[in-house]
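Quick one before lunch.
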Amino acid sequence: MEALKSHAIVKTHELALKGKNRPWFMRKLTDNLRTATRGSGVERVWQGQLMVGLTLEDEDCWPEVKSRLKDVFGVAKFYKAYDLPQDLDGLKARLPELLEGRSFESFRITTNRADKRFSLNSTEVNRDLGAFVKDLTGAQVKLKGPDLSIYLDIQTKGFLVYFDEVKAHGGLPVGVSGKVAVMLSGGIDSPVAAWQMMKRGCQAMFVHFHSYPLVDRTSMEKAVDLVEHLNRHQYQSNLFMAPLGEIQKQIILSCPPSYRVVLYRRFMVRITEVLARRNRAKAIITGESCGQVASQTLENIAVVDQSAGMPILRPLIGHNKEEIVDMAQNIGTFSTSILPDQDCCTLFVPKHPETKADLDTVLRLEEALAVEELVQEAVKNTERRHFASPEAAKLAK
Ligand code: ATP
Ligand code: MG
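Model of the adenosine-5'-triphosphate complex:
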């Protein structure tokens, strides 16, 4: 018998598949899977019934394909599968080969009959194949917690047989929810916030504020590393490096020290909003969590929100620091985030920043500043860096 062709079979969460967005969701997922696996030995990416299949050149490319699939949002779980003709006896003839090297005392068969024209229904197939596997191996059927799960999808074009489930992040394919502008510091929280929004289908653009040359470039270098890392989930990213130093100088000249942080933040938000609108992003994302530091009180959040003309979303608002650190470790950004840096926010920061900023006071203080000009000047001096995952870059050439 010739060797069976192997595939990766990708499944999404059922809920995400409901409604009229389903074809769009599946198309985007298929496109993203194609980009994510470029150069890894995938011959073809195709849409099946309630799943996406990736046909592998050979078995050897599975480890690389597996590691890439884990990073694709919208993928809830995936399997390595084999395709066979739509014929139960043919499958039985192949089963000894497919089960070779596996030791199990219990098993279950889960059949999904996507092609309703197939003569037996899924329960009948489960029974028939179950009896066969029991005779072949001596193992018992166990529906809950079996040693081995054997899946059979009856598709119009043939059977797909698969075993080992690999869990992925689920969520929505990047791109289906539109674009967001992430305020990315070099710290622990904002890369996690970005990751969470990407997981909900948002394409992220990144804005990093720096005070170079008042401080060194370390925070900028960290932002570059972080975007390079996060880019594995969206394949193309833009990082905007915006200068804040001049604005900070103006603020310390005319405003009391305790109000500096909240004023820096309002300027960051205004600049981010201009960049966001130019790039068709619809919301601003920060890594703030309630009460974590002096600037993240409800009062200060309200005063910062007042400077924005689009939603500011804070996906980490209800998380403890320990939880965020855990997430950063899982995502793989933690080791970069904890490298020492000179962040613009540490510049001219008072010992006791205001925790209950008052909007009237803030508005009065800003009257002494040329807000619009300062924002425009910072936007003009913002540098953009483009990132493409290596394989996507090859394609663009
Ligand atoms: P992080 O670990 O994300 O830096 P943090 O706990 O250090 O968070 P702050 O430094 O007060 O908190 O920043 C709160 C949020 O403001 C950050 O999560 C980020 O979204 C934004 N922010 C802070 N500094 C910068 C910066 N230099 N560039 C861009 N955004 C920033
Ligand atoms: Mg910070």
